[in-house]
Amino acid sequence: MVLVQVFTVVTMLMSKVALNAGMHPLVLLVYRNVVAAAAVAPLALIFERDLWKKLNLAVLGWIFINATFGVLLAMGLYYFGLRATNAAYAVDFLNLIPVATFLIAVALRAERLSLACWPGRTKLLGAAAGVAGTMVVSLCKGTHLLLPHLRVSHSHGTKPVTSVHGGQNMVVGTLFLVSSCVSYALWFVVQARVALVFPSRYWTTTLTCVAGSVQSAIAAAVVVALTGTGAGSWGLTSEAWRLRWDMQLATVVYSGVFNTGVTFVLVSWAVARRGPVYPPMFNSLSLVATTVVDALVLGTDVYLGGVLGAALVVLGLYAFLWGKGKELAAAKARELDRPPGDDDDGIA
Known about the structure:
The structure is a single chain. The chain is mostly helical. Helices cover 70% and strands 1% of the residues. It contains 11 helices and 2 strands. It has a two-stranded antiparallel ribbon. It starts with a helix and ends in an 11-residue tail after the last helix.
């Protein structure tokens, strides 16, 4: 899972540089998912060659919804937020995804919250700490921390990195990132349903990436229809779709192969061996690494409020995961202790 965090950090920084260089988020989204589908499709053909026969309209409908929340909204809004802010700021919101998923699951009554025991209380306190940490990062600036900068050159058209608390862009970027976090949380809820109707790892990923790429292309066409083809924050030009041998092409290939294809395989393997709580425990590594590299390499200013808020997010995440882990362990112990024949006792 440390390798997954390395992929995440590298993808985050490469994406920020590509977006600063003028790459449109929807263009990056389309190409990234095409590459990801091409990377995972051979695994589907090798390990799940017979599962494609179980595809039907209902399954394809759920995969379409899965792509809407997981690709178009979650990734798309995150790219727009990343472009408006910076990598060190945006990575904070990745650590809130487990908390947001928990809150939405409780609201939808997909998960039960028990405040009568410490694991339930710890989960609630962790969720509150995560939200509070995000508010501190967003609203509190504090003392400017002086760090040595090894800025990348902007001589090839790369725009300077947007600094934290930089005005209107920061507010808009925060709204994008919060919306992305909620979309990711809803995506996990949808994934649970997809796993029931179509229990496939590789075909689901391949088809979701294809559907997400098509949806992103349609969204790009809508943007062109509404804003025209002029260059600007929202506009898309025909030149934007042309990839050259530069950072933009490297970002598309790397993020598609490693941050989607390889990461999916590694996370699936980790969940199968250690359970669903294990992978998110490493999210804080990407937060720390991205903040440090973003400051040293891209020259992003770091403030005390951001550091304290990030620390609060990490503490909240680990408190939440501790409580969730204890609840899963207790549920597993009850399942093992249940006598045979008690499954149909009428209790929901």
